[in-house]
Design a protein that fits this description.
- The structure is a homodimer.
- Chain A is mainly alpha-helical.
- In chain A, about 85% of the residues lie in helices and about 0% in strands.
- The first copy, chain A, has 6 helices and no strands.
- In chain A, helix 2 packs across helix 4 and helix 3 crosses helix 4.
- Chains A and B meet through helix 4, helix 5 and helix 6 of A and helix 4, helix 5 and helix 6 of B.
Chain lengths: ~120, ~120
């Protein structure tokens, strides 16, 4: 079974709506990069049992995103913030080259800092 | 019962996890501004029945936000975008006053447009 790394993002968004067990399994598998066999050995259940539990939890996360589209909304935000950072870079460089306005410099720096903070959250 | 208008936002975020009936009632009450008596008359159930259904749906929405905090994340995004728009305004005005760089002007306009589009979504 191929690892679908968008699951990590979905888990971050909707994980609290899964059971603790489902969350644990997905975290072992996606965030801690354990194999099915390793999780199976640690948890004392069959490899197939782990696989089924993970598949079911993944399906639930995808259904939640299909209904709510909140990860999609955030992705759009993140894309826009990246464009904003690029524009602020142009302002900064252009101001260095021809303007040297302290106010423009500070405002551009604040735009970049704000957008980067939002992207990190 | 006092109308809590943050419910409209929660409904926009998590409404798809409620039943169609719950969604309808909240929409009548919060988005269409009908009274409990009006919804009761339209739906042919008691005023108390409407009230209870709305209260239960509201509780579910609040529980979802308590667990997922996705509306809070979006509010933080929106606050940051508003700060970015203010900074882009400073860049624009300062550039008009002392620089008149076309590149700075265009980049500032693009920052504003991008942030405003994200706020409108």
């Amino acid at each position: 079974m191929a690892k679908d790394f968008s699951i990590s993002m979905l888990l971050d968004f909707y994980g609290e709506l899964l059971t603790q067990k489902q969350r644990d399994f997905l975290e072992y598998y996606y965030n801690d990069d354990l194999s099915l066999a390793e999780i199976s050995a640690n948890e004392g259940i069959t490899r197939q049992g782990v696989r089924d539990a993970i598949k079911r939890a993944e399906t639930q996360l995808r259904l939640l995103e299909n209904r709510l589209s909140l990860l999609q909304r955030f992705d759009d935000m993140r894309e826009g913030l990246t464009r904003i950072i690029n524009c602020a870079k142009i302002v900064h460089e252009q101001n260095l080259r021809c303007g040297l306005s302290t106010e423009i410099n500070e405002a551009a720096a604040q735009i970049t800092a704000t957008a980067e903070t939002l992207l990190d959250d």
